Amino acid sequence: MIQPATYRAAVAVGSGKLEFAERPVPEPRYGQVRIRVEACGVCHSDSATIEPERAESASALVPGHEVVGRIEALGEGVEGWSLGQRVGVGFLAGEDRTCPSCRQGDIVNCEKPVITGMTVDGGYAEIMIAEARGLVRVPDDLEAAEAAPLLCAGLTTFNALRNAGARAGDIVAVHGLGGLGHLAVQFANSMGFYTVAIARGADKAPLARDLGAHRYIDAKAESVAEVLHNLGGAKVILATAPTGLGMSEMVPGLSPRGKLVVVAIASEPITVNAIDLVFGGRSVVGALTGTVADNEQTLAFAQQRNIRPLIETFPLEQAQSAYDRMMRGDVRFRAVLVMKPTH
């Protein structure tokens, strides 16, 4: 079979706009692989690449950091990977290995990381070049469109929950039932936590229970902190909804030594009363994605426990529509671009 000389990519041209380009198929350099993309999730973080104004001289980047595909070319020096192998690429796709964080083994907080779709081209395309050190092994029996969101939204929530210090039987609350939250509720239930889902509106209660929540709190009708306090206090609250005010109001609902773990970036600040922190030893911490090993463990856990994102799929040609709907919150709950929608 003759390899096409070009491939299609949706590139960010600024101000929220994507344009299609026909590009020559690149050869991977040392330590890199070329991936034939099967699916790529559309994440809110893609707005960092798509929304800013761009100078005419600025190179147009391909967004997308929830990528699943197969290796079709290996660069020199690549070991441990083979042609045709199913792989994924998440948000963090390589580290500099020289900054203080890397030298201390904390590659997630690398000061100059390779960020898929932000510092290098991502997965809104038929083909993508990736650093071999950033590859994630993806099981063949995971549907590409369902696996893609697990590489970012899944990893973020899974890793934050399992590293927060809660134990099976503890009360763990998930604030928000969107792209991150609907996965977090499934993970929390499967980890053995008494899972509380928090959102606005009584209409979301059936969904919360279907996902595995033992209790639903309607933040429009109830005091979240008061309900959590009456339950005994949440050992962990995972904040997946980007509202600083909402996060602030939940802190008193934490148990002694409980944690508010923030994974959503709100436009307004989080304000905390020092009394709620000092008396009870409560804390507010952030959590950022994870390593490739963490990502493989996320996929394995999701596969074992039958945890899947709720998705809407779009052909690559509809990348603009998929992105616009995601930004409006008009997707239930993750938009995914698929390169062969009839497959």
UniProtKB/TrEMBL annotation:
Protein's UniProt keywords contain Metal-binding: yes
Lineage: superkingdom: Bacteria
CC cofactor: Zn(2+)
One Pfam family in the UniProt entry: ADH_N
Keyword field: Metal-binding, Oxidoreductase, Zinc
SMART domains membership: PKS_ER (SM00829)
Domain Enoyl reductase (ER), chain residue ranges per copy: 14-337
Record InterPro entries: ADH-like_C, ADH-like_N, ADH_Zn_CS, ER, GroES-like_sf, NAD(P)-bd_dom_sf
Family membership: Belongs to the zinc-containing alcohol dehydrogenase family.
Identification of the protein by name: D-arabinose 1-dehydrogenase-like Zn-dependent alcohol dehydrogenase
Organism field: Paraburkholderia unamae
Taxonomic placement: Bacteria, Pseudomonadati, Pseudomonadota, Betaproteobacteria, Burkholderiales
